[in-house]
TrEMBL record:
EC number from the UniProt entry: 2.7.13.3
Record-given protein name: histidine kinase
Domain PAS residue range list: 382-434
Keyword Transit peptide part of the UniProt annotation: no
Leader peptide range in chain numbering: none
Keyword terms of this UniProt record: ATP-binding, Cell membrane, Kinase, Membrane, Nucleotide-binding, Phosphoprotein, Transferase, Transmembrane, Transmembrane helix, Two-component regulatory system
Organism encoding this protein: Paenibacillus elgii
Length: 739
């Protein structure tokens, strides 16, 4: 008995010890994961910060490119520079150089006495970042460096080109990024006890490190094992020997692909191991002490309880065999504790009560069976009602019991995620969330753990099949009754339509601010020039300004017309007035309506058969289609635009081919070019502007005619647009004359 009691005591102690060790190990792993998350958060923060400042420099360069000559003098450039610098304190200096690298403008506060500001006329053409921008005509970010631009402090330069009205390279905008601001950004986060962050440039030069002498000297840490690991693995976590700190460290690292920078968070590995082993040692000492006390106490109690327990066991076996008798002698032994005497007495009374209650239970059994049957029928009816209610919902709903098992799911849930209805009921909560996580664009293992959170709420993207992405909103609720918890439920709502509407709204706001800005700025500048009371302008100069205002107003009117057209198309309210019309008349009319500044350098070749049948179409709307097609052919062209128009017919429709020698469209963009606000992301398109509505309007107009429009294109080899329009039947001489 004593040995058995000791063995029984050892088992739970060993189990407790094992669990404790696992918990310590788990805590260590969780701390490591926390360090990895801190590293990713640091990388995201640095990338967002630099992107914001790089975008500011690029935007300033674009603004200068869009400005007229009257706003590119030193005063105009200075105002633009100061506006950016006032809003972005992370720039220690902002310069604008000419095409030869000489500084032509800088912020007024720099000109008024900043000791670190370079004077106007300083030549920066020898700097590597300036050479790179001029060579590639693309924005560039320098390595961390020392130079006159930053005074005595190290800095990072962000540079972007700007262009003349003829799209020729005219100079560079340079933003000197204060590395002290980056240090404040990096150090505002908590990385845990004993941990430190570091940020390095593409070549391993220090941008931030807690040791200020490494930052000031822009130390080369490319030989650090953590940096070399980041160069090959991009991100991860491992143990390294730090040459800079002279110790073994546990380092989590990540490379920011868009910048080529490397960030890491490191902490002393010796401190990590010391904490682990100290906790492990104290745990084992406590377990050994507990085990010894348990064995001693068990031996003492076993001696006093052994005979009483045996008597109780024999009496229990008699009761189990349905042989109830009143004990002839006390069940407890004389040397047993008072508690055992009391237990034996109560056990005898309990046996008597069990015998009496057994008879009563037999009598109640038949009545209970009937009541259970009635209750079961009621529950089945309630379950059927609940199931009918759930099936009527347009959202996916699933219920989880306290054992984390799926117990109920409606049909919409199976349809939304492509599950089999019976299969759903065989899944656990974790398996269900894992399967949903695998249907995301980038499988998210963190999503599968939301079941451990009290009330998870959020949105995620679901890929049901190639090209079929849905935006899903997740909400959960607890299933309780009278304070008792029975499980939880999840509601998955398809928010794709609402998401698309929000995206379109944001696109419209972005386009409105971008497309209206340039013409309105130009109009404002021209009007301010004409309103100068003490300036004497000759008539030819005023006529040029008025013509520019007229062109900008025309551009604004075109934008408004495009938005009105797309609104009518979306509302199904686009009206057309079809009549018999010749293809040549439509094509030539569209070409004549093009602005002369756009068509002056382009060549149009019309090769149409005179026997082509009439189109049954709205001539003005058809010309609108070809104006859009001609405009795209001219804008997206890196050589002299050459456009060829041909046509063929099959008796039902006339197919008109508009072929150009432009830059072409990458294959990945072809399925989306008729979408609203969609623009192919190439350098040419960035320079030309546009709303991204032209082809969507063409699609809407041709749909209203009962025709079709399609595209064939090879990147770098031009584009062919094919417009199919119904043939006019039963034309008369009057019709021909009208056409």
């Amino acid at each position: 008995m004593t040995l058995a009691f000791a063995v029984m005591a050892i088992v739970p102690v060993l189990i407790l010890g094992t669990i404790q060790v696992q918990q310590i190990n788990k805590l260590t792993q969780e701390y490591n994961k926390t360090q990895e998350h801190a590293t990713k958060r640091l990388a995201d923060a640095v990338e967002t910060y630099v992107y914001y400042y790089r975008n500011a420099v690029d935007t300033l360069a674009t603004t200068i490119s869009a400005s007229g000559p009257g706003f590119r003098d030193r005063a105009g450039l200075t105002r633009k520079i100061q506006s950016v610098k006032n809003n972005l304190p992370g720039f220690s200096q902002l310069y604008v150089t000419d095409e030869n690298g000489a500084i032509k403008a800088l912020s007024p506060d720099a000109e008024s006495g900043n000791a670190h500001a370079l004077p106007v006329g300083t030549d920066l053409s020898s700097q590597e970042y300036w050479k790179k921008v001029k060579l590639t005509l693309q924005p560039a970010i320098s390595e961390p460096m020392h130079g006159a631009e930053g005074g005595s402090a190290p800095f990072v330069a962000i540079a972007a080109p700007f262009y003349s009205e003829s799209r020729a390279f005219e100079g560079v905008v340079i933003g000197i990024l204060d590395m002290g601001q980056i240090a404040r950004l990096v150090t505002q986060y908590d990385y845990g006890p004993g941990a430190y962050p570091a940020v390095l440039g593409p070549a391993g030069r220090v941008i931030y490190h807690p040791r200020s002498e490494l930052v000031q000297s822009i130390a080369d840490l490319s030989g650090e094992p953590a940096f070399q690991a980041a160069a090959s693995l991009k991100e991860g976590m491992d143990k390294f020997v730090s040459g800079a700190n002279g110790q073994k460290e546990l380092v989590s690292f990540k490379t920011i692909d868009s910048l080529g920078w490397t960030v890491w968070v490191g902490r002393s590995y010796a401190a990590v191991q010391e904490a682990f082993f100290a906790s492990l040692k104290s745990t084992f000492l406590l377990l050994l002490l507990t085990l010894g006390l348990t064995v001693l106490l068990g031996s003492y109690l076993a001696k006093r309880l052994n005979r009483t327990i045996h008597a109780l066991v024999r009496y229990t076996q008699s009761l189990a065999a349905n042989r109830y008798t009143v004990p002839s002698e006390p069940l407890s032994s004389p040397g047993a504790p008072y508690e055992m005497h009391y237990l034996a007495s109560q056990f005898a009374q309990m046996a008597e009560q069990i015998h009496d209650n057994r008879q009563a239970l037999l009598e109640l059994n038949s009545d209970l069976e009937q009541r259970v049957e009635e209750r079961t029928l009621s529950l089945q009816q309630q379950h059927a009602t609940l199931a009918a209610i759930l099936e009527s919902y347009s959202d996916g709903i699933v219920l989880i019991d306290v054992n984390q098992q799926v117990v109920l799911a409606n049909r919409r849930m199976a349809e939304l995620f492509g599950f089999d209805g019976k299969e759903l009921l065989s899944l656990t909560e974790e398996e269900l969330l894992h399967r949903i996580a695998r249907k995301m664009p980038q499988p998210d293992e963190g999503f599968a753990r939301i079941g451990h959170k009290p009330q998870p709420v959020g949105k995620f993207t679901l890929v049901r099949s190639p090209g079929d992405e849905r935006v899903i909103q997740l909400a959960s609720f607890q299933v309780t009754d009278g304070g008792k918890e029975f499980g939880r439920g999840y509601v998955f709502r398809d928010m794709t339509k609402e998401h698309e509407i929000d995206s379109l709204k944001n696109d419209l706001i972005s386009l409105a601010s971008h497309e209206f800005k340039t013409p309105i700025t130009s109009i404002k500048g021209s009007v301010e020039t004409l309103l100068r009371k003490h300036a004497g302008w000759d008539e030819e100069f005023k006529q040029d300004l008025l013509e520019g205002i007229h062109e900008d107003i025309g551009r604004i009117q075109e934008l408004i017309d495009e938005w009105l057209d797309i609104s009518k198309i979306e509302a199904g309210a686009l009206s057309i007035h079809p009549a018999p019309v010749r293809v040549r008349s439509v094509v030539e009319g569209a070409w004549q309506r093009l602005p002369h500044t756009l068509s002056a350098d382009a060549q149009l070749h019309i090769d149409l058969d005179e026997e082509l049948p009439f189109l049954y179409a709205d001539k003005r709307r058809m010309e609108q289609i070809f104006i859009n097609l001609f405009t795209n052919s001219i804008r997206y062209n890196e050589s002299k635009p050459h456009i060829r128009v041909t046509a063929e017919h099959d008796g039902l429709n006339v197919r008109i081919f508009v072929k150009d020698n432009g830059i072409g469209i990458p294959e990945a963009h072809l399925p989306h070019i008729f979408d609203r606000f969609y623009r192919v992301d190439v350098s040419s398109s960035r320079r030309t502007g546009g709303t991204g509505l032209g082809l969507a309007i063409c699609q809407g107009i041709i749909d209203a005619h009962g025709g079709s429009i399609e595209v064939r294109s090879t990147e770098g080899a031009g584009t062919t647009m094919i417009v199919s329009v119904p043939v006019y039947y039963g034309q008369t001489e009057d019709d021909n004359e009208e056409a």
